[in-house]
Design goal:
The complex is a heterodimer. By secondary structure, chain A is α/β, with parallel strands linked by helices. Chain A has 10 helices and 5 strands, in the order ααβββαααβαβαααα. Chain A is 42% helix and 16% strand. In chain A, strand 4, helix 6 and strand 5 form a beta-alpha-beta unit. In chain A, helix 7 packs parallel to helix 9. Chain A starts with a helix and ends with a helix. Chain B has 4 domains: 131 residues, Jelly Rolls, CATH 2.60.120; 99 residues, CBS-domain (Roll); 155 residues, 2-Layer Sandwich (Beta Polymerase, domain 2), CATH 3.30.460; 143 residues, Four Helix Bundle (Hemerythrin (Met), subunit A) (Up-down Bundle), CATH 1.20.120. Chain B is built from 25 helices and 20 strands. A 4-stranded antiparallel beta sheet of chain B has the order 1-8-3-6. Chain B has a 4-stranded antiparallel beta sheet with strand order 2-7-4-5, with no helix packed on it. In chain B, helix 13 packs across helix 24, helix 18 packs across helix 20 and helix 20 runs antiparallel to helix 22. The chains are: A alpha/beta, B alpha+beta. At the A-B interface, strand 3 and helix 9 of A face helix 1 and strand 1 of B.
């Protein structure tokens, strides 16, 4: 059979956890067993997350806000959504502020980065993550926790951007895979707001649309989808 | 949800707050609803029934379209963006009264029953609305007509709907002779060879001739020895255009249809030809691929041939209008897309809409263009430049494609008609509250609007708001009605024609202004009076009938009159095109046949009768 990457991640997590060989800031993540590869998606706890950042450079840029929303039974549950601005006292590039529609006042009013990360880890523990281009969330998360980018994270990311590429690769290589372009292809309404919460909801909707397109009504398992993406 | 800032999700909060009847609610109730919704997505394969509908809550359509089908299979209603369903099933258990099928991929917001119950208990108005209306109303959105056009042009209709499920299937080891016998018996063009449910080959009748008879092959050999092994097949959810392209590129006349890896049917070029108007499909397909305006302008030349073919083949004139509308829509959408490719996505959310006849799905060969742009209120001053350029590009592009610029300047490139939502709302308020009949006449074109591109919600929100206000304003209705009675059908024209046979004082009548428009305008008065969101004339008459404004027989005679007049108009345009005359809406009575004259007289009488009735009802 295929080498099951999900089992491998779980094995590694368990080993590190039992040997107490992990950074304790990651405790909420490490203490949960990963979902079994054959768990159907409708049974999974899924959380769609998004960060707004001051730029794309993990080393220099900052998280300006975090947002997310949970899905249960493949339905986006609005009641579970969360959003926080992250306090930032440094200088902010003008362009960034415009693009993100975040004002300096909101950032001054935000919560501490440390607190934001602890809220986030709490929200995503035991869950599978959905994000559009997960490298951003993953790397900014690691940086915010003062961890090396190579740190092992026992988190499963279902990346809607990578998933979109698996759908489109036969037709068009140069396809625009930005969140808004992808949504348009599925007849999803445009979101005029650019903030972490709106984008996390937008990503979750895209995820549902992609699933319907690829798998129709089948309730597939986690591994089937994971294999397709990676 | 923790006390969340509404501005973070303007599209969700705004959508609910501006969708009737939630627009009646106070802020607190709106917040309660907005923060409790669940979002789900359905494809055309899905269906909601029984426990998926009962005791769940209220389903609001954010994008897409659905149909409610009664248990006896009849259509309950067709709903689009901004419509809701599920209320009557909220307190039921077990079997639902209807099922919901999805006409296109659909994003639903679901308001849970508990939350809705709570809000309703505090808002008596809301509950009245739901109970009385029962949400049975015919659709208002553009989707319906698009659907009809597709049924005809079958452009986006999937092959699954068209395919032939009677197939000749053999196994690899069946003999050549048995296969040949089966082909003859079923009168099939080709046999599909299956092994373990997998398509392994295809044998056509001509293969039998070439590979068996001509090569003198032993016909007791298994079929796998002569079958074509690299089978070109197609996914059942592709459309006819995809199938045609595949057939042309592989030079085959036959395609097996596969769904989820399983063979479900077959399609041949003949099936496609019988079910489709190829030329219209080709045109639509090529419009979407055109790379610049000059390519589009070249394609536009095909419009005339499509029109004449449709008239010649005696296609229902309502379908002709829908096909012509669909073609105009495609040009418009493509132009917007071309603009975006060069100038990037819009800086803020917006909607491009069409007005007048194209909004009513009543485009005909002479139609010009009427359109406008609604931008989000959050637009920045510097962003208007983008939309000005877009509008100019689209308006000029359409002009080059044969949709001449609007004389009245009702086009997006006119800065007056490219403004934020709230400005549009101010316009409509002014028009609706104006006591001056003339001003209504000037903007009548904007009483019919239909979404084309961008955020559909901006259009449906605007439409919902102004129709609601207009239908409640008696003075506005009276003025609208007076305007529509300024022109009367030329009942006496044929008599006069007989009298002036000597050629002096020759009369002609304008079939558009003196006949067609009269029905269109009557239907508009009826529709606005009953708060119908429908834009096209036949739907408006149907809605008016449902709301008791006209009775069933009035509806029928108006539809017949309207259909007949359009039929005459198209036939004469067709004849003009054939003899390369310049097209005109002016018909000299002498060119009409006796049959046409008799029926036109009837049609005119019907229109006049209903004009009088409307006058009595709305003007008094």
């Amino acid at each position: 059979m295929f080498f099951n990457k999900l089992k491998h991640i779980e094995k590694k997590r368990l080993k590190l956890y039992q040997n107490n060989n992990f950074d304790h800031v990651l405790e909420p993540i490490f203490k949960h067993k990963l979902p079994l590869a054959n768990t159907s998606l409708s049974q999974l706890k899924l959380v769609s997350i998004d960060f707004e950042t001051s730029g794309l450079n993990f080393e220099q840029d900052h998280i300006l806000s975090i947002g997310g929303v949970c899905l249960s039974k493949l339905e986006i549950d609005f009641q579970s959504s969360f959003h926080h601005y992250v306090k930032y006292l440094g200088k902010l590039n003008n362009d960034t502020a415009v693009i993100n529609q975040i004002t300096l006042a909101q950032l001054l009013d935000g919560i501490e980065l440390e607190q934001a990360m602890s809220i986030l880890l709490d929200k995503i523990q035991g869950a599978v993550i959905i994000s559009h281009c997960h490298t951003i969330e993953k790397n900014f998360l690691l940086r915010a926790l003062n961890l090396k980018l190579s740190t092992f994270l026992p988190i499963i990311f279902l990346d809607t951007m990578l998933l979109e590429k698996t759908i489109m690769r036969h037709d068009n290589y140069n396809l625009d895979v930005s969140l808004s372009a992808c949504r348009k292809r599925y007849n999803l309404p445009p979101y005029n707001a650019h903030n972490a919460l709106a984008d996390s909801v937008a990503t979750a909707e895209l995820f549902l649309a992609q699933l319907k397109t690829i798998y129709k009504n089948q309730d597939i398992d986690l591994y089937t989808l994971y294999k397709r993406i990676y | 949800m923790e006390h969340l800032d509404k501005s973070l999700l303007p599209n969700i909060f705004d959508f609910i707050a501006n969708t009737y009847p939630f627009s009646l609610l106070d802020q607190l109730s709106l917040d309660a609803i907005s923060t409790s919704i669940k979002i789900s997505y359905y494809s055309t394969e899905d269906c909601l029934i029984d426990e998926q509908l009962c005791s769940v809550g209220l389903f609001m359509i954010r994008s897409g379209a659905i149909e409610q089908i009664n248990t006896d299979g009849s259509l309950r209603s067709r709903l689009g963006v901004g419509d809701s369903f599920g209320f009557t099933q909220m307190n039921k258990k077990g079997n639902s009264d209807y099922k919901v099928v999805f006409l296109e991929n659909t994003l639903l917001y679901v308001i849970p029953r508990q939350v809705l119950d709570l809000v309703i208990s505090k808002n008596a108005k809301l509950s009245e609305y739901f109970d009385s209306k029962d949400w049975v109303r015919l659709s208002s959105t553009h989707k319906y007509y698009e659907q009809q056009a597709q049924n005809f042009a079958v452009n986006n209709k999937t092959l699954k709907d068209l395919c032939n499920r009677e197939m000749t299937i053999v196994s690899e080891n069946d003999t050549i002779r048995d296969t040949a016998k089966l082909l003859c018996k079923n009168n099939s063009y080709a046999a599909i060879v299956l092994d373990n449910n997998k398509i392994t080959g295809i044998v056509t009748k001509s293969d039998m001739t070439q590979r068996v008879v001509a090569d003198n092959t032993d016909s007791t050999l298994p079929i796998k020895t002569i079958m074509s092994k690299n089978v070109v097949y197609i996914d059942a959810y592709k459309n006819t255009l995809d199938a045609l392209e595949l057939m042309f590129s592989h030079n085959v006349k036959f395609l097996p249809l596969v769904s989820n890896g399983e063979l479900i049917g077959q399609i041949t070029t003949t099936d496609l030809l019988q079910n489709t108007n190829l030329q219209a499909i080709y045109l639509l397909g090529h419009i979407n691929k055109a790379k610049n305006v000059s390519q589009l302008a070249k394609l536009a030349l095909q419009k005339q041939e499509i029109f004449t073919t449709l008239v010649k083949e005696n296609i229902d004139q309502n379908i002709i209008k829908v096909v012509l509308t669909k073609i105009q829509d495609s040009f418009t959408k493509r132009l917007i897309e071309l603009f975006k490719q060069e100038h990037g996505e819009a800086p803020c959310s917006y909607a491009f809409f069409v007005a007048g006849s194209s909004a009513r799905n009543e485009v005909q060969f002479l139609s010009d263009q009427d359109n406008g742009i609604i931008t989000s209120d959050s637009i920045k001053e510097t962003d208007f430049d983008y939309f000005k350029k877009l509008a100019l590009f689209v308006n000029q592009g359409l002009d080059q494609c044969g949709y001449s610029l609007c004389d009245g300047g009702y086009m997006a490139s006119n800065s007056q008609w490219c403004v934020p939502y709230s400005t549009w709302l101010t316009y409509y308020n002014k028009w609706i509250n104006s006591t001056d009949g003339q001003s209504i006449l000037n903007i009548a074109v904007f009483l019919d609007i239909r979404y084309i591109e961008g955020d559909e919600f901006l259009v449906s929100k605007l439409k919902n708001t102004f129709i609601q206000k207009a239908s409640a304003n008696r003075l506005f209705l009276a003025n609208l009605c007076k305007n529509c009675l300024m022109v009367r059908p030329p009942i006496g024209i044929f008599k006069q024609f007989v009298l002036t046979r000597d050629g002096q004082n020759r009369m002609s009548f304008d079939i558009k202004k003196q006949a067609i428009n009269l029905v269109v305008e009557l239907a508009r008065v009826y529709a606005i009076a009953c708060g119908s969101l429908a834009t096209d004339t036949l739907d408006r008459l149907a809605d008016a009938c449902v709301h008791g404004i006209i009775d069933e027989s009035s509806k029928r005679e108006l539809i017949e009159a309207y259909t007949f007049i359009n039929h005459v108009r198209f036939n004469h345009q067709y004849k003009d095109l054939m003899i390369k005359e310049k097209l005109s809406n002016l018909l000299p009575p002498e060119i009409l046949s006796q049959f046409e004259r008799n029926h036109l007289k009837d049609a005119f009488r019907i229109i006049a009768k209903h004009q009088d009735a409307a006058l009595f009802r709305y003007v008094g």
